[in-house]
Write a structure and sequence with these properties.
single chain, 160 residues, alpha+beta, Immunoglobulin-like, five-stranded antiparallel β-sheet, 9 strands, elongated
Length: 160
């Protein structure tokens, strides 16, 4: 009987994670198609910039270099607070037009399996659509609570 209960808990936990992933992907690239001005980072051609940002979950140090047709972004992310058993974590780069509409979303770095104590490093070079005028950074994740089998969902746009 205990094995059946544990199997049911595992199935339900995975189902919740799947629902959260679908909802968060809609948040980042589906239903929420416009990023507010406070989270947009202008990327005029020829600009090379170094930035720092912090939320209640993460501290981010990064730099970007905008060329005529592309963008190179690199940096590192540290977890500000201990998140417990981190099931998954994804940092994404959102490419925006002049109205803040999301044109494209690119994964920068991912983590999971309890890795909330480490530094996550990323480096990407990518081509930009002609109408890209700004970027934004957003993360999503899920922690696992050992006692209940549930978890805490993390999802936030990183302020500019």
């Amino acid at each position: 009987m205990a094995n059946g209960t544990q199997a049911l808990k595992t199935i339900l936990t995975r189902l919740v994670i799947l629902v959260v992933l679908i909802a968060q992907s809609h948040f980042l690239i589906g239903c929420k198609t416009t990023v507010p001005p406070g989270s947009r980072i202008a990327i005029p051609e020829g600009v090379r910039e170094q930035k720092n940002a912090q939320t209640e979950d993460v501290s981010l140090n990064y730099s970007y270099d905008r060329t005529k047709s592309g963008l190179e972004i690199r940096g590192d992310l540290r977890f500000v607070r201990r998140l417990g058993d981190l099931q998954y974590f994804n940092l994404r780069l959102l490419i925006l037009d002049s109205n803040g509409n999301v044109l494209h979303s690119v994964g920068l770095v991912s983590a999971g399996d309890g890795s909330s104590g480490e530094v996550l490093t990323f480096h990407k070079s990518l081509q930009l659509p002609e109408n890209a005028t700004s970027i934004a950074l957003a993360y999503q994740g899920m922690t696992r609570l050992h006692e209940s089998g549930g978890g805490v969902a993390l999802s936030q746009l990183i302020p500019n």
